[in-house]
Structures are given as structure tokens and as C-alpha cells.
Specification:
This protein has one domain (2-107): Nucleic acid-binding proteins (OB fold (Dihydrolipoamide Acetyltransferase, E2P)). Helices cover 9% and strands 59% of the residues. It is built from one helix and six strands, in the order ββββαββ. It has a five-stranded mixed β-barrel. The radius of gyration is 16 Å and the shape is globular. It starts with 7 loop residues before the first strand and ends with a strand.
Amino acid sequence: MSTLRNKVQLIGNLGNNPEIITLDSGKKLAKFSIATNESFKNTDGEKVQNTQWHNVVAWNTTAEIVEKYLEKGKEIAIEGKLTSRSYDDKDGNKRYVTEIVCSELLMLGGK
């Protein structure tokens, strides 16, 4: 059961082309967001679609795969863990970010 702690699995579509950052150390970082959709019927029987956006980061080899193959609209499956961090913006306000650190990536759909 310890492998189930802090584990996220999602299937969704990229909202934009990934942002690729090469650090001074040579390591690569890919940042992107994916949308997951859920459909249900409301009390009036009308179909409602709910979209959730998830921020994702990938490092090293996974980031290289993201850079080479992924683009806006592509359907993917990811597995990773949730992380939270904070930083001070340019105005000195504290900002909080929750993102998924991707450890596995599977490209779905057609070419």
C-alpha cells in the first residue's frame, strides 16, 4: 500500500504547447497543463461537461520526450505525484502552486 501514497494518474489533453526550460546544469524541465473532462446529467436531465485543469512538470528524459513529441491538443496519460510550493511574486505577494511531477507518460490517440 505504500506505493499508493501520493500517486496521481490522469488522462487528458494538453491545453498549450509545453514550455521547455534548460537549466544551467543541463537538466531539462517541461511545464504544461492538461485538461480532464467529466460529463454528467444535472437535475433537469441536461448533459453538463466539467473541465478541470492540471499543471504538470516533467524532468530530464521525460522532459525531452515532452519537447520532442507533445503539442497542444494531444491526448496523454500521466502518472506522478502531487507537490505544493510557494514563492513571492514581483509585488511581494506570496503565491501557492500545486502541480503534478510526472514520472510516467503515455501518448494516446492518433498521430
